[in-house]
Amino acid sequence: MPTLTYHGHACFEVSTEDYTVIIDPWLTDNPQADVGPEQIECRGILVTHGHADHLGNALAIALRTNAEVVTTAELAQYFIDGGAGRVYPMHIGGSHQFRFGSVRLTPALHGGSVAGDETGKYACTPCGFLLDMDGKVIYHAGDTGLSAEMALIGKRHSIACALLPVGGNYTMDPDDAVEAVLMLKPKVVIPMHVNTFDTIRQDLSGFPATVKTATKGKTTAVLLKPGETLDV
Ligand code: NI
Ligand code: MN
């Protein structure tokens, strides 16, 4: 049974007895982060896109831990050029079985520039991830607007836990996320990418009740604080 740990903004760690995978490890400068990048020990690093609040400390963690970096092909090249030892390029729609579990890349409606890249050569289409560890599927949507693609994801995958951006402005807002939940049909939904800075402030106090009503109790919304964990 995987355990999810929230490190704030869009960063989650997923751990089983044998492996730990981190997604979008923006920790330095992340006002919500409960840990520093030097405290992370992991086998895999999943990066949804190149914006600073997702790419974050991914390269530094890869260089120190030799964890395998999984991301879209163009962003993967950024890690290869940066000296990361183990990089696995993929692209949207593709899936691969790793030691730690299987990963499928999903579409995300968002921008593709890479922080710190002045050439533009690493720019790419952002993605989300379906991560299957110990038979439990976790969907990290990345940064995305509400998308009809989510209906297909919900139809084809039995999602234990969906991690959805709800801050608005750059991504879905809480109302959009409820609509996404109706398509994805996860057992649990955890809001992310919210209240980190002023442009993504939202009041989530009514979100769990709204989700419960909209899904007739089939999906539970859990508001995780940084440092908190949840058994999936
Ligand atoms: Ni972004
Ligand atoms: Mn973002």
List the helices and strands and how they pair.
Blueprint: E1 3-6, E2 12-15, E3 20-23, E4 44-46, H1 52-55, H2 58-65, E5 68-72, H3 73-81, E6 87-90, E7 95-97, E8 102-107, E9 127-133, E10 136-140, H4 149-156, E11 159-165, H5 174-184, E12 188-192, H6 207-214, E13 220-221, E14 229-231
Parallel strand pairs: 3-4, 4-5, 5-6, 10-11, 11-12, 12-13
Antiparallel strand pairs: 1-2, 1-14, 2-3, 7-8, 8-9, 9-10
Helix pairs in contact: 4-5, 5-6
> N-to-C terminal Cα separation, in Å?
6 Å
Question: Given this structure, which CATH class is correct?
Answer: Alpha Beta
What shape does the CA trace take? globular
Summed over residues and divided by their number, the pLDDT gives a mean of 98
CATH H-level homologous superfamily name: Ribonuclease Z/Hydroxyacylglutathione hydrolase-like
- Please list the strands of the largest sheet in the order they lie side by side: 6-5-4-3-2-1-14
Any guess at the CATH architecture?
4-Layer Sandwich
Radius of gyration: 16 Å
The largest sheet is:
7 strands, mixed
Counting structural domains, the number is 1
Give the SSE order as H and E letters.
EEEEHHEHEEEEEHEHEHEE
Q: Could you say what the CATH topology is called?
A: Metallo-beta-lactamase, Chain A
Helical content (DSSP H or I, runs of 4+):
10-25%
Unique ligands: nickel (II) ion, manganese (II) ion
Number of helices: 6
Proportion of residues in β-strands: 25-35%
By oligomeric state, this entry counts as: single chain
**What are the segments in which pLDDT stays under 50 over at least 5 consecutive residues?**
none
- Number of β-strand runs: 14
